[in-house]
Amino acid sequence: MEDSDFRTMSQFIYTQYGIKMPPAKKTLLESRLQKRLKLTGKTSFRTYLEYVFTPQGQASELISMVDAITTNKTGFFRGPDHFEYLQDTALPTLLKGNKLGTLQCWSAACSTGEEPYTLAMVLNDARMHNPALNYTILATDLSTHVLQRAAQAVYTEEQATEIPLPLRRRYLLQSKDKLARQVRVNATLREKVLFQRLNLMDESYNTGINFQIIFCRNVLIYFDRATQERVVQKLSERLEPGGYLFIGHSESLTQMDIPLQQVRPTIFRKP
User: Fold this and answer.
1) Catalytic pick among 36, 141, 217, 238
2) 33 plus 159 within the same structural domain
């Protein structure tokens, strides 16, 4: 990939998706796009780039390119202290002022679905002790590829090892093919999660509803500081007063002009 092509590509990725792509990531970008070159029959990054910017390429290749360049690392009960706080503090606080017990939750940048299904396990267990509790979870991501995998809700047994054993027994189905060593999240939880594509760089987040709980973890680190603040501002607009925002443990909102109060490191509440 020529330096000029890389600069064009990295600027496009930043403008459209907010993802920083400094020169040090040139080799990474090349390796991730090699497969797309082969599948589209392009012989160079220059011809591939030219194709992506055509109307046909925008319609048929752009989303596949985004899928190739985005990072989708996740796991069940990743950052377990967040789910402990949700269970022990946030939920009881929210339910005190919510007589109907209906909670709207959003897992932004949900990747292959482990985070929203973890949320569903925690909320469904809470519902066992509070039958009036009802909840829905919107799970969004930039990548259509990972959203398709998330909706299938099929994982390897190894991926499920971080789920506490009682929850595994309650919410996971074993594959009939023992050699496959796969599990699937049961229908009770799958029905509670709605998956849809959303770009956090959009001018506004047309989710249709506001939320009491938003998880947006381990995605802000890919944005520069100004973009991070814009994203958090837009997330805050979709957060109900009294609602909670959870961010990744390597992320910080320090000195940002946002309408949120920090209640724990990486946990914020809207007054």
Assistant:
1) 141
2) no
